[in-house]
Amino acid sequence: MLISPLFAQASVFSILNVFFGKYATQTQAQSSNFNSQTIPLLQPAVNIDPNPAKGGGDIAVVDGTALVPTDGPSGTLADIEEQSQSSQISVYTVRSGDTLSGIAEMFDVTVNTIIWANDIKGRIIRPGDMLIILPITGIRHTVAKGETLQSIAKKYKGDTAEIASYNEISSDSKLALGTVIIIPGGEVTAPPATTRSNSGAASRLQGANGPDYGGYYLWPVNGGIVTQGLHGFNGIDIGAPKNTAILAAAEGVVIISKGGGGWNGGYGNYVVVQHQNGTQTLYSHAAQLLVSPGDQVAQGQTIALIGRTGQATGYHLHFEVRGAKNPFAK
User: Fold this and answer.
1) 157: phi > 0 → left, psi -120 to 50 → alpha, else beta; which?
2) 3-state helix vs strand vs coil in the chain, percent to 5
3) Distance (Å, rounded) from C-alpha 210 to C-alpha 207?
4) Does some domain include residue 260?
């Protein structure tokens, strides 16, 4: 299995031929000089920064399928503190002999992470299935006497419904003493500071410190107003009536279009577009998706319709910019 940045996979989208065609012509004459002993081998990318920035990284390509690194909207995966070295989301094609536990071990995640992100029923996977692998981690908590799901969620600033869904229990379950559960996005409260500060608590906002591309992005809704400012993974919420047009903020290529009305890590139906400046935009909670992976979209093109799928209350678009500042954040 080869995982490589999208920009290194010239065969992924035909549009890249425009950029690579000239280079291929220039190097064609040299190709005959290579044999099995002398042909250059692919090398992994090197990052001299031991703590590379998250959210704006390269797209992971697994078995020929590309996906953008992503988490989810506020209150779901966007607020999860990742412990894994990679913040990339990957897409994995199930092969004969694969098991959920084996795939989970391969990507250093839990089986429940895979089940939760893909709405898998009965823990059944089949060859050819495409699985979204979220680099999600959370806090492990051992249930103490008298604790409830609600009290644990409050303790770690988690979401009761998410904890229940992730651990495959009901929200009103009585937790047995000693049971170990995972709190997705759980946050351990830091001890109080010894001095006063007006800066407030450190924000768990991710991905908001990228470059400012000014007017590169178009307002992504036909109308609408910001109902929640910057939160989660550099995202905002834009409220609008059901089935209002969701517009591509910039031209690019659709790399994810995941519908079906499933949970999908809290996003519900969502689309991710890769742009020519190396950034990605994400559009979630849609009622209907109008594009497919590989589609080329123009700036302002309708790609989906406003809905409230996934972890959403009320009709709105959760809009994220990955790899740059969100120009519409308050």
Assistant:
1) left
2) 20, 25, 55
3) 7
4) yes
DSSP 55-83: SSSPPEEETTEEE-----STTTGGG----
326, two tokens: 């969100």
Is residue 197 included in any domain, yes or no?
no
Whole domain around residue 274: which residue ranges?
214-322
How many domains are contained in the chain?
3
Q: What is the pLDDT, as a whole number, of residue 202?
A: 34
Task: Please report where in the chains the tokens 């490589």 appear, as a residue.
Answer: 4
User: Residues 171, 284: one domain?
Assistant: no
| Tokens, residue 213 | 């591309």
Q: What is the pLDDT of residues 160-198, one digit of tens each?
A: 888 888 788 888 888 988 888 888 766 665 443 333 333
Per-residue pLDDT of 106-153, as tens digits, reads 888 888 878 877 778 888 999 999 887 776 656 778 889 899 999 998
Q: Locate all alpha helices (DSSP H) within the chain, ordered by sequence.
A: 17-31, 100-107, 111-118, 149-155, 160-166
Answer yes or no: are the C-beta atoms of 302 and 246 closer than 8 Å. yes
